[in-house]
Design brief:
alpha/beta; Rossmann fold; Dihydrodipicolinate Reductase, domain 2; 9-stranded mixed β-sheet; 14 helices; globular; binds NADPH dihydro-nicotinamide-adenine-dinucleotide phosphate
C-alpha cells in the first residue's frame, strides 16, 4: 500500500521496522536510515531472519536537511517516519516539505541547549504542511501516542465530557543493571529532571522535579511509587480537549534509579551546558550517555511488565458522573521474543507502526500538523488489539482520591 523511510536505528526504530515487515500488505517497501550504518544493518539482518523481508539501509545525518531531502528524493517514500531523536524533528520536517512527503514522529522537538518539551515549534509548521497538501502526525508512540488516543476513545465512546485525566505510566521491568534508562538516556534524564507541570483550571501548575509522590497498585505489576511529571501530551490534550479541568502525568521510578539519579545530578553529570575537559567542550549528560548501557541492549535481561493507561472522570453518556480506566499491559520477555527489544521500545515502536499504517491506508488524512487525539481513535485502537498491544477499559468505583 505504501513505501516508508524510517530514520533512526535505536530500540524504537528496531521494533517499528520489525512490525512494519510483519505487515507487508501495508508496508510494501521499508527503507531504514540512521547515523550509524552498522546499527541499520543489524536491524535489517534480524528483520530478514524473522520475516524474510529485505530492508535497504543508508547512513544519514538527519541534522543535515539537504542530505535528508536528497535521500528522500532518491527513495521516493510516501511517508518519512522519524524515530531518531527529538533534536532532529524540525530538520526532518523541513526535508519532508522540501521533498513533498508526509511526516510522522514519536516525540516533540526539543532544542539541544534547553530541556523544553513544547509543541509550538512543530505546530508552527501547520500552515506550510497545509499549503503543501501534506500530513505531519506528531507523537505516535505510547506516551504521547496511545495515551492520547485512549483519551479520545473514552471521549468518543464513554464520556460526553472529561473533567479530569490522569495518565499513569508504570514500568515494572527489571533489567538487572545498577542504573540504565529504557529509552535514550539523554532524552530520558532531561525529561525526568525537568520541573513537573500539570494543568489545572486553565493554568499550568509547576512543582519541583520528583517532589510529588503517590503509591498506586498496578495490575500485573503491584504497588509502585509514581511521581508527578511534565509530559508533552498534557499540552496537546488540553488544547484539543479543552473542557478538561485537570490533566496530570505520573511515572513510576524505583528507589535505586532515583538514588543514582540524585547522585549524578549532585555531581553535575546531568548538566546539559558545555564544560571544558582536556581542552575541549563536552556536555556532561552526553558523556554519561556514552557510559550507560544502550537501551537496545537491555532486552535480553529485562523481565516484568509495563502497565500504561489513562484514568478519566467525567459525565457519561447517561448523564451520570463516571470514572474509567483504560490501559495496556505489556510483557518485556514476550516483546523481546517477538522483535529482539524490551517492552519500552516495543510499546513505542508498535504505535509508530500503527500511526504510519493510519497514514498509508488513508484512515487518517488531513493537510497540516496533527496530534494523535485529533483523528478518529477507532481504527488505531483496533490495530493495537491485533498487533501486540491489547487494551482494556473498566469502570472504577469513583474518581481518584489523590
Ligand atoms: P535511541 O537513542 O536508542 O535511538 C535513536 C536513534 O537515532 C539512534 O540510532 C541514533 O543514531 C539515531 N540518530 C540520532 N541522531 C541522529 C541524526 N542526527 N541523524 C540520524 N540518526 C540519528 O532512542 P530510542 O530508540 O529509545 O528512541 C527513539 C525516539 O523515540 C526518541 O525520539 C525518543 O524520545 C522517542 N520515544 C518516544 C516514546 C513515546 O512513548 N512517545 C517512548 C520512548 C522513546 P546513533 O546510533 O548513531 O546514535
Amino acid at each position: 500500500m505504501g513505501k516508508i523511510l524510517v530514520i533512526g536505528a535505536g530500540g524504537v526504530g528496531s521494533v517499528a521496522v520489525h512490525k512494519m515487515a510483519m505487515n507487508a500488505d501495508i508496508f510494501n517497501e521499508i527503507h531504514l536510515a540512521s547515523r550509524t550504518l552498522p546499527k541499520c544493518e543489524a536491524i535489517a539482518l534480524s528483520v530478514k531472519e524473522r520475516t524474510g523481508i529485505d530492508v535497504p539501509v543508508y547512513a544519514l545525518d538527519a541534522d543535515d536537511i539537504a542530505a535528508t531531502s536528497a535521500l528522500i528524493d532518491q527513495i521516493k517514500p510516501d511517508l518519512v517516519c522519524n524515530l531518531a531523536l527529538p533534536y532532529q524533528d524540525l530538520n526532518i520536517m523541513e526535508a519532508c516539505l522540501k521533498s513533498g512527503v508526509h511526516y510522522m514522529d514519536t516525540a516533540n522537538y526539543e532544542p539541544r541547549d534547553e530541556a523544553k518539551f513544547e509543541y509550538h515549534w512543530q505546530w508552527a509548521y501547520h500552515e506550510r504542511f497545509k499549503q503543501a497538501g501534506l500530513t505531519a502526525l506528531l507523537g505516535s508512540g505510547f506516551d504521547p501516542g496511545v495515551t492520547s488516543v485512549f483519551a479520545s476513545y473514552l471521549k468518543k465512546h464513554y464520556l460526553d465530557r472529561i473533567d479530569t485525566l490522569d495518565i499513569l505510566d508504570c514500568n515494572g521491568g527489571d533489567h538487572g543493571q545498577h542504573f540504565a534508562t529504557n529509552f535514550n538516556p539523554e532524552i530520558n534524564i532531561r525529561e525526568v529532571t525537568a520541573p513537573a507541570r500539570h494543568w489545572l483550571n486553565g493554568e499550568w501548575i509547576e512543582t519541583p522535579a520528583l517532589s510529588h509522590k503517590q503509591s498506586f497498585d498496578f495490575e500485573a505489576v503491584g504497588e509502585k511509587n509514581m511521581y508527578l511529571m511534565y509530559h508533552e501530551e498534557i499540552e496537546s490534550l488540553k488544547t484539543h480537549i479543552p473542557e478538561i479541568k485537570r490533566i496530570r502525568f505520573w511515572m513510576t521510578f524505583g528507589d535505586a534509579y532515583l538514588t543514582h539519579l540524585e547522585v549524578l545530578q549532585n555531581v553535575g553529570m546531568t548538566r546539559i551546558d558545555p564544560v571544558m575537559y582536556e581542552g575541549r567542550e563536552i556536555i556532561p549528560l552526553q558523556f554519561l550517555k556514552a557510559v550507560l548501557p544502550e537501551p537496545a541492549s537491555l532486552g535480553e535481561t529485562t523481565k516484568g511488565k509495563t502497565n500504561i493507561g489513562d484514568i478519566a472522570t467525567g459525565i457519561a453518556k447517561d448523564g451520570s458522573e463516571k470514572t474509567y480506566y483504560i490501559n495496556n499491559i505489556c510483557d518485556h520477555e514476550a516483546a523481546f521474543a517477538e522483535t529482539g527489544n524490551q517492552a519500552v521500545s516495543y510499546t513505542t515502536g508498535v504505535p509508530a507502526m500503527i500511526g504510519a499504517a493510519m497514514i498509508l491506508t488513508g484512515k487518517w488524512a488531513g493537510d497540516g500538523v496533527f496530534n494523535m487525539e485529533q483523528f478518529d481513535p477507532d481504527p488505531f485502537m483496533e490495530m493495537l488489539n491485533t498487533h501486540g498491544l491489547p487494551w482494556q477499559v473498566k469502570e472504577l468505583d469513583g474518581p481518584l482520591t489523590f
